[in-house]
Amino acid sequence: MRLILAVTAALAACAAQAEPRDITADVWVDNWFSVYANGEMVMEDPVSITTERSFNAETATFTVALPAVIAIEAKDFKENESGLEYIGTGRQQMGDGGMIAQFKDALTGQVLAVTDASMKCLVVQHAPISPSCANETNPVAGEGACGFVVTDIPVDWTSPDFDDSDWPAATLHSAADVGPKDGYDDITWDSAAELVWGESLTQDNTLLCRLTVSE
Ligand SMILES: [Ca+2]
Ligand SMILES: [Ca+2]
Questions:
Q1: φ, ψ for residue 199 (rounded to 5)?
Q2: How far does residue 196's CA lie from ligand 2's centre (Å)?
Q3: Mind listing the pLDDT tens digit for each residue in 117-176?
Q4: Ligand lying closest to the C-alpha of residue 52
Q5: What are the tens digits of pLDDT across the range 102-120?
Q6: Of 118, 147, 148, 213, which sits most exposed with the smallest number of CB within 10 A?
Q7: What is the CA radius of gyration of the chain?
Q8: What ligand is nearest to the CA atom of residue 126?
Q9: Number of domains in the chain
């Protein structure tokens, strides 16, 4: 009897903890993103990364049990593994990234989580290894300054159980450095929400980031 009561109490506690909540997310990424909540994809940037000047912000509401691990894949556009864009034109450059997001209780509007220095971001594509690649007349991915570093994506990186303790913290970047525009200006950002990326806005091209939304 005591065992049954204990099990019942444990189930009740579990059910209370897992009560689903409606979360509204605002996300802006230069240039493309997808968002997972407790391992389920809940948002995907509808504007293709190959769209020039893709600076849209997206807002979506999804249902998830709290606390929820939010996993964001963020990509700065690159034409190939060299990390460059506009290759072979007068505008050939490394291009830069940047991201900001906030997660609110959909009913009350209370901000429950934001992008800031407490989140974790693993860079999985870094290129070019030297900025001088952007000055080459014939930049070849993988050669010299145009080398690249690719990190394997852990298969379960969106899972709430994934251990990100050895991932680096996100790096904060100023609005002046990121130059956020277009969709960014359509959102009222909470003062705690920070622009983040890897250490390099230009050379860190694909990031996996994780943060937790709690009550
Ligand atoms: Ca970009
Ligand atoms: Ca870049």
A1: -60, -35
A2: 14
A3: 999 999 999 999 999 999 999 999 999 999 999 999 999 999 999 999 999 999 999 999
A4: 1
A5: 999 999 999 999 999 999 9
A6: 118
A7: 20
A8: 2
A9: 1
Q: What are phi and psi of 210, to 5 degrees?
A: -140, 140
Task: Decide if 187 contacts 104 (C-beta within 8 A).
Answer: no
Count of residues for the chain? 215
Q: Give the ligand with the smallest distance to the CA of 29.
A: 1
> 206 is in which domain, residue-wise?
21-213
CATH number of the domain at 120, please: 2.60.120
**Residue type, position 42, single letter:** V
Ligand nearest to the CA of 94: 2
Instruction: Find the 139 Cα to ligand 1 centroid distance in Å.
Output: 19
Tell me how far the alpha carbon of residue 211 lies from the centroid of ligand 1, in angstroms: 23
User: Under a CB-based contact definition with an 8 Å cutoff, are residues 208 and 153 in contact?
Assistant: yes
8 inside domain: no
The answer to the question of residue 207 being in a domain is yes
pTM of structure: 0.91
> Which amino acid, residue 28?
W
Structural domain includes residue 188: yes
